[in-house]
Design brief:
heterodimer, A: about 300 residues, alpha/beta, TIM Barrel, eight-stranded parallel β-barrel, four-stranded antiparallel sheet, about 20% strand, globular, B: Elongation Factor Tu (Ef-tu), domain 3, seven-stranded mixed sheet, 17 strands, about 15% helix
């Protein structure tokens, strides 16, 4: 009842581990997959190793979390072992990558394909590192070029993760429309100041807000993009229970990603949400997930 | 973020000092806080005195801990926590094995039924030397400048542990790995406080994970049975970038 096919990738349930949360150590991804996630997306990987920002990299606020981890990653040549470990779960693993140019994205994606990932997710939306992420993902012609380059060369599906921190999400979604799916949304740019220290908490100053506070923002963009452009959408932002996930399905998402909620609920959250979705479908008379996708769009 | 003020500063060894501060919170032995030194960084610190005032014992490893050591009485402290799973406390006789600054998280466990093995490179670096009110204190130094020359595992090998209801261990991974090896062949209950690069403290960044669990949330205290079956302990860990590196044993 909960299985779903995303651009040909079979997931036993529509709940994916979001990129950036508990996904740099292969053993962690493997455990989360074994505990009930339908698929896992790796931490975003670039060409070279990056240590990321000096902590504090997170600030917990009411309604969520602000983070500026700084794209810490071991570099593409050091990630294959972790992917191999995660794949021991026999579940789909999606490789997230970030870069500055189409060629850089292509080189990273080709390596990921060689490492055996089931799809790549393009990070066109990290809000806190110069020269990559949103800086790339807010330029429609560059986004179009990156997607075109990858789609012409890869065997595996390409998902584009987009940012809400742009003038027009619709314009960027349209530029990325040839992707096999759009992932909406990344974190919302934000900041927290400690009034006793009289300075921003995060060492980077600003960061990305995630968690329940951004769910209405995510729902709105999923709804709008699905209604206007009708691509395959993976929804992400503030999901903590089955009803939240269903809200995303009804806005137009075919699957969802979960990240910040692991802070509060641990990796048990995946099996809990699966159960809650099943209960809802039974009570409301849905046989297939597909019947709920876009059901809330007027 | 919680804020408090330093009420007392105690020089422990040439490289280590203890900072006391008021904090009216329930903290159990083995738990830790993420302490923020504005402009320098944020680091995990074990609570070395769980009463009130509470205390942390700081060794200068990098810029944040070096700056922390420069702070004095009345300076502000910023932190969040307490975090982590505490040690399981027992009323009976216990053996406490602490090496280097690892002794800090074990200090709240010490009582009159404790036998404490403290080790350091040399006599002047023995943490809490002369301050431990235990049944028995055994000093061990790498160079033999005080107590037994060697390491905790060399002493433990010929040390009868049958009478201890629990063994608590904290120190460098190489030492703990060897102690685990010795205790695995005996019937002792034991708990180890592990260390990995820690960034978020709240179970989401994956920096401190070992065998799929997060030390900041499900640790840092891990029981011997779980550790015996560990894939990563004593073998590999991730560096600050997430690159897998070998643990030197």
């Amino acid at each position: 009842m909960l299985s779903v096919s995303l651009a040909g990738i079979k997931l036993e349930n529509p709940l994916m581990l979001a990129s950036g949360i508990l996904d740099q150590n292969g053993y962690t991804m493997k455990r989360i997959l074994e505990k009930g996630a339908g698929a896992a997306v790796t931490k975003s990987i670039g060409k070279e190793p990056r240590s990321g920002y000096v902590p504090p990299i997170v600030s917990v606020i009411e309604g969520g979390l602000i983070n500026a981890v700084g794209l810490s990653n071991p570099g593409i040549r050091n990630i294959s072992g972790e992917i191999k470990i995660a794949k021991e779960s026999n579940k789909p693993v999606i490789g997230s990558i970030f870069g500055a140019t189409p060629d850089e994205f292509l080189s990273l994606a080709a390596s990921m394909q060689d490492f055996g990932v089931d799809a790549v997710e393009l990070n066109l939306s990290c809000p806190h590192v110069k020269g990559v992420g949103t800086e790339v993902g807010s330029d429609p012609s560059l986004v179009k070029e990156i997607v075109k380059t990858l789609k012409g060369s890869l065997r595996i599906p390409v998902f584009s993760k987009l940012s809400p921190n742009v003038n027009s999400v619709l314009e960027i979604a349209n530029a990325a429309i040839d992707s096999d799916g759009l992932v909406l949304i990344n974190t919302v740019k934000g900041m927290a100041i400690d009034v006793y220290a009289r300075r921003p908490v995060l060492s980077n100053g600003f960061g990305g807000l995630s968690g329940p506070a951004i769910r209405p923002v995510g729902i709105r963009y999923v709804y709008e993009v699905k209604k206007e452009l009708d691509p395959l959408i993976i929804g992400v932002g503030g999901i903590e229970n089955g009803i939240h996930a269903i809200e995303y399905f009804m806005a137009g998402a075919s699957a969802v990603q979960i990240g910040t909620a692991l802070m509060k609920y641990g990796c048990q959250i995946f099996s809990n949400i699966s159960r809650e979705i099943g209960e809802f479908m039974k009570a409301e008379g849905f046989q297939e997930l597909d019947q709920m996708v876009g059901a809330g769009i007027l | 973020m919680i804020h408090s003020k330093i009420t007392e500063k105690i020089r422990e060894t040439p490289s280590t000092c203890t900072l006391k501060f008021e904090w009216d919170a329930a903290v159990l032995p083995g738990q830790f806080i993420m302490i923020w030194i504005p402009g320098y960084g944020e680091i995990p610190m074990s609570i070395s005195d769980t009463g009130n005032p509470k205390a942390i014992t700081v060794k200068a490893y990098g810029p944040p801990s070096a700056r922390l050591q420069e702070l004095g009485v009345n300076d502000k402290l910023f932190f969040r926590g307490p975090y982590g799973v505490p040690f399981t406390e027992v009323k009976e006789r216990k053996l406490i094995i602490g090496s280097g600054s690892g002794m800090a998280c074990l200090m709240p466990l010490v009582d009159s039924k404790s036998t404490v093995m403290i080790s350091a490179k040399k006599a002047s670096e023995l943490l809490y030397r002369g301050k431990i009110n235990a049944e028995n204190v055994i000093y061990i130094t790498d160079d033999g400048s005080e107590g037994t020359r060697g390491f905790p595992d060399t002493v433990l090998r010929d040390f009868d542990t049958k009478e201890f209801h629990m063994v608590y261990v904290c120190g460098p991974e190489a030492m703990m790995y060897k102690v685990l090896g010795i205790l695995s062949a005996r019937q002792n209950r034991a708990e180890f406080s592990l260390e990995r690069s820690m960034k978020c403290g709240i179970g989401i960044c994956d920096s401190c994970s070992i065998d799929g669990i997060q030390l900041c949330r499900d640790g840092p205290v891990i029981g011997i049975e779980r550790l015996k079956n560990s894939i990563e302990f004593g073998r590999s860990k991730l560096d600050h970038s997430g690159k897998r590196i070998r643990v030197e044993i």
